Amino acid sequence: MDIVDVTTIIDINMTEFMGFLGYVEVLSTDKRLPRLVIRLRLKPAREAFMILKNLWEEDQLRMGAMAKVLH
Fold this sequence. Notes:
- This protein is α+β, with helices and mostly antiparallel strands.
- The chain has one domain.
- The chain is 41% helix and 34% strand.
- It has 1 helix and 3 strands, in the order βββα.
- The protein has one helix at residues 42-70, and strands at residues 9-17, 21-28, 35-41.
- The longest helix is centred in the C-terminal third of the chain and has 29 residues, at 42-70.
- It is elongated and about 45 Å long.
């Protein structure tokens, strides 16, 4: 199983193929898994992309808020 720590994520993208497949790509600073590609049917791919993107964005906001508190 591939596990990526959300704090190491650099970017998340999604591409569609032929109108029925979706590829969710997760780029991270983790040397063990710098690029993870998830291939799913289009609807589940869109759902997974939105969940991952929202989780990542929430983490970014939290990290930004923590940085402001520490300074």
